[in-house]
Amino acid sequence: MITIDAMMVCLDLSELDDKLIAFSRSVCERLQVRKVYFVHNIKLYELADEFREMLGDLDLSQEVEGNIADLVAEQFGNITDHEILVSQEPNTEVILANLVRRYNIKLTLLGKTMSDKRTGAQGTKLLRILPCSVLVCPETASFNLRKVLVPIDFSDTSLHALRLSKALTDQLGLELEILHVYRLPTQFFPLISEEEAIRKAVEVVKGKFADLQRRHPEIAGVPYTLVRAANKTIAERIALHQEKGHHDLLVLGLRSMNALPALSLGSVAADVYNSDVGVPLWLVYPEEPARK
After folding, report:
1. Which residues of the chain have pLDDT under 70?
2. CATH architecture type of domain 3-284
3. What is the pTM of this model?
4. Mean pLDDT of the residues in the chain
5. Over the chain, what HEC string results?
6. In the chain, domain spans
């Protein structure tokens, strides 16, 4: 049974909030979520001086909290314990990271507007700084989950995502597929034949899968697919395979925090997040947000 002790839902007072709150309800209906925090940070410094004067003595935090409370009542109801947190801090990413630590958040929900590059840029910053798993809900996402795709590269990070994917699909009765995208060392062509390189690459990867199945018998029956990157990036191949296979959820491993935040996300995870993938994307932080 997957249990999430605390989940954070990041709101920005846009039209996407309705869908994100409804999506959080869908998560709570499927998984055991003990508490949900709906959060918003007001950046007063972004307001024009004239607008600040118009506000006068108005308690903006109270007004925003009331607005969020109305949306939560409409889209979320009382499905589980929840709380609304509104802050006024200059740096949204830092305050959200602090909330994750303060309330021991295990999963953060982010909305993503496909056509808004600003939304994507801020989301990338959050992925780099938040010390928890992140579930991204694009505006085009459907709540009807049937098929899950988990790309792996055999690293501990991706195997961690695979374990969560298996637990999730077992619990909800979903289909799971494992994907591995491989590259060929093209700098050695034509010294070696491309056909032989492909044969050898597939042989090596199949050996890795066989070893993985021996070490983790619970995934022995999960189908896997090998795809060559060829003239595409790994993220592009993942997106193409997801679209072709009509998968409803993508699960990727998220690297843990380290001394260099710029290196903590992982290029593939960042590229997939910044792509036009229109299904929910679960980025799994190494500290497992689920318990079996």
Report:
1. 44-58, 115-121, 185-192, 256-266, 287-292
2. 3-Layer(aba) Sandwich (3.40)
3. 0.87
4. 86
5. CCEECCEEEECCCCCHHHHHHHHHHHHHHHCEECEEEEEEECCHHHCCHHHHHHHCCCCHHHHHHHHHHHHHHHHCCCCCEEEEEEECCCCHHHHHHHHHHHCCCCEEEEEECCCCHHHHHHHHHHHHHCCCEEEEEECCCCCCCCEEEEECCCCHHHHHHHHHHHHHHHHHCCEEEEEEEECCCHHHCCCCCHHHHHHHHHHHHHHHHHHHHHHCHHHCCCCEEEEECCCCCHHHHHHHHHHHHCCCEEEEECCCCCCCHHHCCCHHHHHHHCCCCCCCEEEECCCCCCCC
6. 3-284
